[in-house]
Amino acid sequence: MELFTAIYFLLLVYTMITFCKYIFHKRNQCCYMLNYECYTSTDDRKLDTESCGKIVQRNKNLGLEEYRFLLQTIVSAGIGEETYGPRNVIEGREECPTTADALWELDDIIFQTLDKLFASSGVLPSEIDILVVNVSLLSPAPSLTARVINRYKMRENIKVFNLSGMGCSASLIAVDLVRHLFRLYNNAFAIVVSTESIGPHWYCGKEKSMILSNCLFRSGGCSMLLTNNRALERQAILKLSCSVRTHLAADDDAYNCCMQVEDDRDYRGFLLTKSLKKAAAKALSMNFRVLVPKMLPFKELLRYVIVSRLRKKIKSLSIENTAGASLNLKAGIEHFCIHPGGKAVIDGVGKSLGLGDYDLEPARMALHRFGNTSAGGLWYVLGYMQAKKRLKKGDKILMISLGAGFKCNNCVWEVLRDLDDANVWKGCIQHYPTKPSTNPFMEKYSWINDEHLSYIKLC
Known about the structure:
This protein is an alpha/beta fold. Helix content is 43%, strand content 16%. The model is unreliable at 316-325 and 450-459 (pLDDT under 50).
């Protein structure tokens, strides 16, 4: 009898310990965003119509066909005249960038956003436990994380991760990495810096599939402060609910659709192929198969299953009557934060998810004002929602990012308090959303013909 009592007691103790470990593990899974800061440059680095025209005309490798292609692309890209370009490109040194140019560009973005982040949050650099920096196209030695640690004299035991080659969706990869690290470290602070090196990788050739990147990518970035300290929940602005990462590099078409290469004249650039749209659709579909059950309420999932089954049984049902079979994402999501990779990307994602103009407005306006800033782009979109006072306590935000690899990384955030800070949009948010108008680039440069092209080349 005493033996059974002892065994029962041990089992009870083991159960209690296991339960406590489970509760402790669950408590450590939280990931809060305390604040974020996006980059803005000075007016002398704005790529307005005049500046873009000068840069295009400097490329003596272009023929009339390439000029017309550039004109058509810039007009339809959805980008305005206030985006920021790299200093070496503005100054006409795009064909011979230096290491100093590359590091100056990144230092300007990284240190400006981090200075603002530390000032606004009140957290000291010495308090940071985890540092993640993602820049796809530049990986210097010492690393970019080392430059940050040296600048702010951070602790010697800080955990650092330098991510390169991860593309436009690297920002959510970094956040997901921090989320996993938070399971190992209690009450930790983490910094994530997301930006891109544009200046040294400006394409100076004439291949159409590589010229496109010059029309879309602009200088920009963001720094974020995250924590898993539950005592700071009231100070936080967002809480990460779930995240899902999908990688299609095993598929050759998806792997090759978005890649940095050299053309036949040894000009380095970013190749965007026709397979990009197909790869993006496939990656998004696969990602949502995992993400949707995590972000939508059971009631909506049940409705979808029932309607889908009925549609299969009643084969004669018309297409118009089967519209209800599609998932209603708005049953669990209030806001959609889509990576502003380009007008076609935004419109394509919006169409596939059944989103309206109101849902796509933040991504379209972020693209218009700041261009495609690669991994930092999502946070300009979030900033637009915040500046427009759309984000209310309890709202859910779906972030959708697509990038080279090919990757699709999505996550859901919960808004912890009403947000109305003008942030990076301060001073210009009152002008948005913009109304459709004639593109100034078309007005100024649509006159280019063979005769003018010959003159431009002579100059």
